[in-house]
Amino acid sequence: MIRIFHHYVSRIAFMLLLLELSILLAAAVTSAPLWPALAFALVMVVSMGTLGMYQHDQSREDIKSTLLRITPSFVLGFGLMQLLAGLLPGIRLGSVVFLLGAGAVLLARLLVFTSAQSSILEQRLIIVGDGAIARECMELAGSSIGFHPFRVVGFVPVSGELRAVPPAMLLPSDLPLLSLARRYAADEIVVTVGDRRNGAFPVRQLLECALGGVPVTDAATFFEREACQIRVDSLQPSYLIFGGGFDQSLMRALVKRLFDLLASLAIGLLAAPVMLLTAIAIRMEDGGPVFYRQERVGRGNRLFKVLKFRSMRQDAESDGRPQWAAQDDPRVTAVGHWIRKLRIDELPQMLNVFKGEMSFVGPRPEREYFVEQLCGQIAYYNVRHGIKPGITGLAQVRYRYGASVSDALQKLQYDLYYVKNNSLFLDLLILVDTVQVVLFGKGSR
């Protein structure tokens, strides 16, 4: 992994993006000047990103699934280029360029993904610890979430932990860690030990590994790097204090505010016809109000009224008690089902953005009733209120709709990552992923 503006990005994904930019630019330059060719390459990359072709879970695709994703991506790109050509006629390109670019991208992806899955690029891990967090690190390393494969070669048991890993994967505890790393050709050591105050924590041996050229990483950093999560169960308070990030500078605030206003204005103008049709449909369905105002908790725990299209019956909470939204919630109207699925119900929140109560990207604002409960049940929950809430966010594009304390914990771990590492670069990536979530209705309820 490499870090770009505090955000972890796969080296292979970054190389793939640069490779495809070069390929598309070369394909267009053969029949067009440099400026139209550059516009073509950028539009195609954005189109592929919008349809999820640079997400981590695409690294295990075969030729069929890759082709199925390239086709709609280039259809979308073709439409965007036609729209752009209507505004700037000088950048119109022939269909041969699109076909040539698609073929070259398909070939490049097959080569890159085949190489990425090769055992030559496999990263071998030794995990210090044998408890529940060690098991979760093993599961993350063995998942298909990343572009490069991991292999856990074994666990070094530490006294005081309740064993949760396969006994067959335990390594000899009588050998120094550096000797184990060299014997098993380990590329990295991941430390999952929670209690580091007793004499069982091998501080001196870990230092020898670091000095001997074997990188040593703690579990919190491993999860942050590979899953874009700050795991609450493996988090030490010092990690948040000394781990960097949490940019609250004036420059970041100005850039963030400018991005909020431009993104809200652009999407508001594009979505105006859809919003008008939605308002008419809601009114025609049951004659009730089009909009719904609800009190939410914002930055610094300040309360504000969020504005949304009404998607539930008018008597959704007739007993006066807040309720989590449930799967196939009977309170949702017919129109509400579709506007929730397509996230259209969130669009009026752009007015909250213009008022400065929300950002376009940030943690989802929650109701005070639930915030009070969650702050008492989940450690560090209130950290998410250190920045403005958002219409969309990392948790919204990476995790399904939250409807329980367990879901709130999972989403908090993405929110903590965003609060710690937020930047304009990450905002743009989340905005691109949001388009995919809207197009495919992911995470709606």
Automatic annotation (TrEMBL):
<keyword id="KW-0472">Membrane</keyword>
<feature type="domain" description="Bacterial sugar transferase">
    <location>
        <begin position="256"/>
        <end position="439"/>
    </location>
</feature>
<keyword id="KW-0812">Transmembrane</keyword>
<dbReference type="Pfam" id="PF02397">
    <property type="entry name" value="Bac_transf"/>
</dbReference>
<dbReference type="GO" id="GO:0016780">
    <property type="term" value="F:phosphotransferase activity, for other substituted phosphate groups"/>
</dbReference>
<feature type="transmembrane region" description="Helical">
    <location>
        <begin position="12"/>
        <end position="29"/>
    </location>
</feature>
<feature type="transmembrane region" description="Helical">
    <location>
        <begin position="91"/>
        <end position="112"/>
    </location>
</feature>
<dbReference type="GO" id="GO:0016020">
    <property type="term" value="C:membrane"/>
</dbReference>
<dbReference type="InterPro" id="IPR017475">
    <property type="entry name" value="EPS_sugar_tfrase"/>
</dbReference>
<comment type="similarity">
    <text>Belongs to the bacterial sugar transferase family.</text>
</comment>
<keyword id="KW-1133">Transmembrane helix</keyword>
<dbReference type="InterPro" id="IPR003362">
    <property type="entry name" value="Bact_transf"/>
</dbReference>
<protein>
    <submittedName>
        <fullName>TIGR03013 family PEP-CTERM/XrtA system glycosyltransferase</fullName>
    </submittedName>
</protein>
<keyword id="KW-0808">Transferase</keyword>
<feature type="transmembrane region" description="Helical">
    <location>
        <begin position="66"/>
        <end position="85"/>
    </location>
</feature>
<feature type="transmembrane region" description="Helical">
    <location>
        <begin position="35"/>
        <end position="54"/>
    </location>
</feature>
<feature type="transmembrane region" description="Helical">
    <location>
        <begin position="258"/>
        <end position="282"/>
    </location>
</feature>
<dbReference type="InterPro" id="IPR017464">
    <property type="entry name" value="Sugar_tfrase_EpsB_2"/>
</dbReference>
